[in-house]
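We emphasize that the prediction below concerns an isolated chain of 377 residues; any contacts that depend on oligomerization or on bound cofactors are therefore not represented. The input was used exactly as deposited, without trimming of termini.
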Amino acid sequence: MRGVVVLAPMLLFACGPVGDLPADGHGASATGAPCTLAAECEGGLCITAIRAGGVATGWADGSCSRACPQGTCPEGESCAELSDGNWCVPACSDPGMRGSCRVGYVCNTEIGGCLPDCREGWPCGAAYACDAATGECKPASGRPAPVGAPCTEDAQCASGTCIAAIEDGKPTGFAGGACVAQCGPTGCPQGGTCVALPGGPLCLSGCETSANCRPGYVCPAPDHACIPDCNGGFDCGPNRRCEAATGNCVAAVGPGNGAIGAACKDAADCASEFCLAPMGGGGGMGGGGPGGTGTGGFCSALCGTGSCPAGTACVGQGLQRHCMPSCGAGGACPTGLVCDPLPKACVPDCRAGWPCPGMATCSPDGTCAPSRRPPPR
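Result of the prediction step, given as a token string:
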């Protein structure tokens, strides 16, 4: 699988406040350890048990933490988005149970991280309700779930799309089901990463390591998205195999050597394992992702709103964005590509039959330009 880093999984609800946050310090206590002062914590942040005025926060005995404004935490930690900010909490692998979390905390299903037990006073906020059986804050009835959340039907997801664990009587490999979204021209919903899957690109929950993912999911680099563990029945697709040691889908014969912009017939020709090819029928462009094939395509990679390798640029191609080579001196581009001056990137030459997306038309220089409507009379 290939993708781009966006964000690590986060708990997308406004739970109770984190409490008073003293000035940064540099102690020795790890994230999740009890604390009363920031100076006790290696992350320089203590979420206190009692805030100003003697009000209990629900964080039993306080908890060492660190900020994760971009949604990423060190290995062994998960990022939780709360009403007062984004904070790292200890990762756990037994959602809905106290298990590896210390007393007063439970393993939250959505982020795989230890959060306060709501049965002991942690407020869930208006949109969530406390599950008396587990101590988790869970979406209240009718609250749509974010990308990556477990699900059994489309109506449960904010995106309107759920890949259930069982569909048409057959297992999908998505343990517990997962809310997903279509990759759009501006990337994915917050917390999502666009990934090329055998059935086409989809937004899955982002991650830094597999510890950030729900049980049954892995975080292969450089996808940085929680993808079903293929040991659990996920279909890797043609030209791919399941690597039992990691649960990752890998190229059956190893990736090709084609750099971004090189000609390709299928994903196996490309080091990125993604071959961008023209779509048949109504036009537009499609990706020969893992196991996918194309005709007269170019090696590329999905980029959403993220970064691309040096010497390449993230370019909008219809409903998706792809990494393409940057224009060289004098607008030089590899054979079959032309220099689009706006993104300063080499794009497929529409004069050779590549379709222009939407209402765009093919310009004399081989780039696609927005159609000009005649002025009103």
